[in-house]
Fold:
Amino acid sequence: MRKMALNFAVLCAFLLTLHSSIALDNGLALTPPMGWLSWERFRCDTDCVKDPKNCIGENLLMDMIDHMASDGYKDAGYFTVNVDDCWLAHERDSQGKLQPDPARFPHGIKYIADYAHSKGLKFGIYEDIGTKTCGGFPGIDQHYQTDAQTFADWGVDMLKLDGCYEKVADMDADYPKMGQALNATGRPIIYSCSWPDYQRGSGMKVNYTNIALHCNLWRNYADIGDSWQSVTGIIDFYGDNQAMFAPAAGPGNWNDPDMLIVGDFSLSLDQSRAQFGIWSLLAAPLIMSNDLRNISDSAKEILLNKEVIDVNQDPLGKQGLRIQKQSNFEVWRKELTNNSLAVILFYRSSAGTARKFTVDFETLNITAPAMAVRDLFSHQDLGMFKGNFTASVNPNGVVMVKMTPASG
Structure:
């Protein structure tokens, strides 16, 4: 009997070890990651002679680290400065290891990661699961252990792994291998995957339960561009397909609708609030891609809105859902701790005047007789509401409120 018990204990230990080696299970990203990423705003600008301030290089990243640390972003929860594609040299080094472009990164990647850490921030990096990155630089290309250890040695805290130049049919096997290699380094590295977007684009059915086993966050849809059309296209995709992937989201696992473009060139004030509010309600990673050295006060105020960020970072970890779509009016709802709700009324019209909209408590699945309502952008308590809620919403804008059951 004792021998059987011992054998059972050994089997359990083996299965636990097997699970930890196969699944990511790294205990990271228990709330959606927040930070900054170079791609949308700075793309693949590698000409540091003609454009020294904006090229993908050491100076740009250290500037962003400085502004993240000193301009209130770190205090608001934005912790990770991420470099996207085009940081690499065109060849691996003599030992087969990845290396940065020596002209644009004269002190190497570890120097920048150490600088971020000295400011109380984290540092993230980009690579590709295939033979090349989307920009044509060396990809992982089966170098899982070597590259994972290189990132760990550099002090990297987050990896975004793209899927260019990789057979989509191989992604189900290859993305988990990189996650296992990251775990094996012993360094906590958040793992962001582009895996499901490539499968969707190829017509494959995506197994989000499997994706969530191996990635902390993942992209489902096309890259965001600097336009309202791009933002609303992503919103539509997330609303139309929420039943497919929202159940996979929760602490440690997040659907990523791509970067925040608040503070860039195209969005109006109301459109900027709409993107930030809906991304926050979706429990999406809040990853800015803008120039923190030159950002308007109004954009900064949106990005540092603690009440909206608190919705995003709510520890319950529920992804918000679109619960009503009627012509150019939508209602979005997110469950929060303490039986509270975040609700967005979204008016998708370019008409030149605000409109009043009413949503009833039944639609919001509210059973409490009365709810205290607070506007999260105006920072005003709107009062106690019974049975329904009415608000005036600007064109291409949102009203975002927190609803809390009345006490007593």
Notes: Residues 1-21 have pLDDT under 50 and may be disordered. The two ends are 59 Å apart (CA to CA). The first helix runs from residue 2 to 22. The chain is about 35% helix and 20% strand.
